[in-house]
Amino acid sequence: MQRRTFLKGTIATSTLAIVVSAGMLSPRTVLAAWPKSAFEAKTVEDALNSLLGNAQTTPSADIKIKAPDIAENGAVVPVTITTSITGIESISIVAMKNGNPLAANFIMTNNTKGFISTRIKMGKTSDVVAIVKAGGKSHAARKNIKVTIGGCGG
């Protein structure tokens, strides 16, 4: 190992340890903006009202959902959302018939491409709705996914 690399690593580790011990970096700070009430909501309307301020969305052909037509295991349903909408603020995924319908919410930064890929749990066959918030408006697209084995306690 080179001396310079070793010293850089030691200094970085020491600085991080000081910041953490001083309480300047904590999970509480990172999770402060987590929309707990939206994820705990039992209805789609309550989740969207809590997350976006209202449940009104406009259908958009500029949002594409890539997901299997039939998910053999609802515990791990791969979902990819792409959009050409500019000025994206967030991308959310809602599984309409889940006990807690909000499956995911991604806050996007400026100049971020409209792309996310994740896995969600689905309790039963239902529509999956992708909601893209941009310019203060909410745009949506939906896809029906048939679930053969439920992933939410089913």
From TrEMBL:
Q: What's a Pfam family in this record?
A: SoxY
> Gene3D superfamilies, alphabetically?
SoxY domain
- Domain Ig-like SoxY intervals: 50-152
The record, for InterPro entries, names:
SoxY, SoxY_sf, Sulphur_oxidation_SoxY
Q: What is this protein called?
A: Sulfur oxidation protein SoxY
